Automatic annotation (TrEMBL):
Protein name from the UniProt record: NAD(P)-binding domain-containing protein
Taxonomic superkingdom: Bacteria
Gene3D superfamilies in UniProt: NAD(P)-binding Rossmann-like Domain (3.40.50.720), ProC C-terminal domain-like (1.10.3730.10)
InterPro entries hit by this protein: 6-PGluconate_DH-like_C_sf (IPR008927), NAD(P)-bd_dom_sf (IPR036291), P5C_Rdtase_cat_N (IPR028939), P5CR-like_CS (IPR053790), P5CR_dimer (IPR029036), Pyrroline-COOH_reductase (IPR000304)
Domain Pyrroline-5-carboxylate reductase catalytic N-terminal: 4-83
Organism the protein comes from: Tumebacillus amylolyticus
Entries under Pfam families matching the protein: F420_oxidored, P5CR_dimer
Residue ranges of every copy of the Pyrroline-5-carboxylate reductase dimerisation domain listed in the record: 146-246
Annotated family: Belongs to the pyrroline-5-carboxylate reductase family.
């Protein structure tokens, strides 16, 4: 995902993407799809050929890969992990270079959305600008505290899937209740979502502005919101409790939140 985004970004003529993968067939597919990407057979070779190193592996594999490449890391390297479980201080204890942590989103495929950024203690203002400038070409980088990563990534990285579940059900309800074709329902929901996104990000609308402008008192939308209120009460609180518990490796306790008014 990141390779595709960087290759298609405005920086594509200014940077050289170097990549490796433990599966040779995946590496071959990658090179076939993006001939401009330089492929390497090993992680050590990739690190040696790079200035900024992105570590994109599963949590359990991260420590082993870091130890594997650490002899090849120079002090002038910038080492960036996309793994939320690898702490900045852990990387700084193992590596002699500047480190950062970023959490991308599937929205980077469209060169959009948010990338969460956390900087290590060795980085200067200039260093931080360097990494953020890279990410600006494929997303909107937002700096967050590492302690806030779990809930922030639920919004920016997990959020597209959570909302897609709701939007898909909205479209399917229109098919069931209105009898319209599935492709028409999907198209209407997708384009509505695109327009809503532009209102919120480009036109300066707040969530409450959209609700107020569309929901005329006593009108159809207002009646629909009344249906949503009981079902939505506390549902996202429970979702965030569940994801936090999953990240910490234990079962989520029941979460009960009662809202007496509609909260936007």
């Amino acid at each position: 995902m990141l390779i595709r985004a960087f290759v298609q970004s405005t920086l594509s003529s200014e940077i050289q993407v170097v990549a490796c993968n433990r599966s040779p067939e995946k590496l071959e597919q990658l090179q076939t799809r993006y001939p401009q990407v330089q492929v390497c057979e090993t992680a050590e070779e990739t690190v040696s050929a790079s200035d900024v190193v992105f570590l994109c592996v599963k949590p359990g594999d991260a420590p082993g890969v870091i130890n594997q490449v650490s002899p090849f890391i120079r002090e002038d390297h910038y080492f960036v992990s996309i793994n939320s479980h690898v702490l900045l201080e852990e990387m700084e204890a193992l590596l002699p270079c500047r480190v950062a942590k970023v959490i991308p989103s599937i929205t980077q495929v469209a060169l959009a959305g948010v990338t969460l950024v956390m900087h290590g203690n060795r980085t200067t203002i200039e260093d931080r600008h360097e990494v953020e400038s890279l990410l600006e070409a494929i997303s909107k980088p937002i700096v967050v505290e590492e302690a806030d990563l779990r809930v922030c990534s639920d919004l920016s990285s997990c959020g597209p899937a959570f909302l897609a579940v709701l939007l898909q059900e909205f479209a399917m309800a229109a098919v069931r209740q209105g009898g319209i074709p599935r492709d028409l329902a999907d198209a209407l929901v997708k384009d509505m979502t695109l327009g809503l996104g532009k209102l919120l990000t480009e036109e300066g609308f707040e969530f409450s502005d959209v609700i107020r402008r569309v929901s005329v008192p006593g009108g159809i939308t207002a009646e629909g919101i009344k249906v949503l209120q009981p079902s939505m009460s506390g549902i996202f609180d429970q979702l965030l409790v569940t994801t936090r518990s999953k990240a910490h490796g234990h079962k989520a306790a029941p979460c009960k939140v009662e809202l007496t008014e509609y909260e936007d």
